[in-house]
Amino acid sequence: MADYKDRPQAFLDEVILPTLAGLGLDADPKAASQLLLGTAIQESNLFYRRQLGDGPARGLFQMEPATYNDIWGNYLAYQAGLADKVRAFLNGDPQSAAALENNDKYAAAMTRVHYRRVPAALPPFGDIDAMGAYWKQYYNTPQGGGTAAEFVDNWHRYFP
Question: pTM of the full predicted structure?
Fold first, then answer.
């Protein structure tokens, strides 16, 4: 398990891009890679692998077990080929939400699948404001504590 704090380019190169290539969902993965990187920056600062305050969220994408279980039960259960691609990132480890904490590629795959279920197209590459709004609407949810403005601000801390 690598340390990616203050190393967003390494996280992109070592985790996100290989994961997206393995999933094969995006003809051009630039927008998806930017959305995933922004999500991890916003959710965990590329550092926290357990939700602060002992909450349920795990991994650098801070996915909750309920979300994880919903993806497997209500989406991947009906997408056998994609499910196999996601499972490949487990490297033989058991399929569980606990794997999100230390298996960054598996967590990235689950996050991409989460966004894949969204009925709206991904925002265009380079439109960080739209990425923040998309993250807020579909990942953090309108009831969540984060804001699209925080997403954008956190992105610009790394990419001024």
Answer: 0.97
